[in-house]
Structure prediction request, 449 residues.
Amino acid sequence: MTEIAPQTAELLHRSMVPCLATVRRIVWETDDTFTLLIDTAQMNGSPYSFKPGQFNMIYAFGTGESAISISSDPGKPGMLAHTIHRVGSVTSALSRLKRGSLIGLRGPYGTAWPLEEAAGKDICIAAGGIGLAPLRPIIYSLIRKRDLYGRIVILYGARSPLDLLYRVELEQWNKLPNTEVIITVDRGDSTWKGHIGVVTNLFSYIKLDSESTIAMVCGPEVMMKYTVEELQRRGLSQDQIYISMERNMKCGVGLCGHCQFGPKFICKDGPVFRLPDVYYLLEKKEL
Amino acid sequence: MEPQGLTESLHKHPFLSNMNEELLKTLTSCASNIVVPEGARLFKEGEDAKTFYLIRSGRIALELPGGERGMIRIQTIGPGEVLGWSWLISPYRWHFDAYAVEQVHAFAIDATCLRTKCETDYRFGYEMLRRFSEVLERRLEATRLQLLDVYGNAPGERGENY
Ligand SMILES: Cc1cc2nc3c(=O)[nH]c(=O)nc-3n(C[C@H](O)[C@H](O)[C@H](O)COP(=O)(O)OP(=O)(O)OC[C@H]3O[C@@H](n4cnc5c(N)ncnc54)[C@H](O)[C@@H]3O)c2cc1C
Ligand code: FES
Prediction:
């Protein structure tokens, strides 16, 4: 059996111990999705920083722990945001928290969106549903240094107009120079004047410079599969495409094997992957 | 618009990109420019499909009657896209209603004229069928994805929360 060096064991132990964090505010984005704002100034005394695309393990006392992507601005680490879709026991317990409630938090974990590689390039961001949350930090980072990047196109698909996240910000981003936000919903009614149809339809309305575009995609796996096919149809190579994957997690640090995805662990090799590393695994069942 | 001007602007529509000039001229003879005001209905389910449209700007919504749920807006068609293939398939009737969500500029192609051209000039007919098949394939794929309702809660499914 391989021995773990004492320093490594100590490091692993520390990265597994949650610290206490205080909920500053809860903002309901839709009927079943809310953003938890957490005060990091009071966390463990040491400064907290993260990269766009990374996630935290959030502990709801008495219930359990879930992996949740950070959805706030990496340039403002004093207040962390996590946008959470209420699906089961942990996410429901988190939805019942109030201002001043305590949670356990450990992280940040995982790989980040390719911010440095994106410099000088056009960016195509494609998000589906709550997949916009892990992409929001990279959008903040790109627009903070807007001049460093070429054209930014954000394509966003949701189930219905009532399920759209960050509506005000989407409008603000759309007004930025050389930046376009196009939104579509799967189901609309006659009061909805925007696009109706799946997010891949939106590619008909944009032109991508296949040589110099970096694409970042996050959403349900099926949506990502069709989106990367569309990007490739438009001339992007797999190397120009990044996706963020999710699987059930336990340790978050590559120890337990819960999040294994083929030969990869989502928690430490991902969640953000360059497409060639995971393409052959996309949409394979039971991995 | 003069036929020459119309041919040139038709050529710019993505549906007709790289179409050879002779075939494009054949199509131009069946085409006209139209403007549809916001809120206007282009056609209704069950009506004869006398025209198909190449959208240049604006947006068209397709609606189906959903029983007690009223009219359901199932899809929108925007700039660079094609509206309608019922003109191609007998009995040439529309399967949904179409409304302009905002003012629309489009090329309207007369279906009877086009069908006659397709039947007399097989090369032209084949070219139209080839281009429409591509559109149909993409729409079918999009419909499949839409049916999957990927943003809904899917109990027991992994990776379906986003
Ligand atoms: C790297 C990463 C980042 C994530 N970021 C976010 C985020 O920003 N916001 C967010 O809302 N969620 C995110 N998730 C998903 C989130 O971790 C799960 O939804 C959560 O753990 C469910 O816990 P629960 O106890 O509420 O649900 P459970 O009671 O465990 O399960 C309820 C339902 O949710 C399904 N489910 C459980 N875990 C997952 C999962 N990991 N993915 C998909 N479905 C699941 C179950 O199959 C079941 O149908 C992320 C997951 C990963 C791995
Ligand atoms: S969650 Fe334990 S190995 Fe990834």
Summary: Chain A has two domains: 6-109, 122-282. The mean pLDDT of chain A is 90.
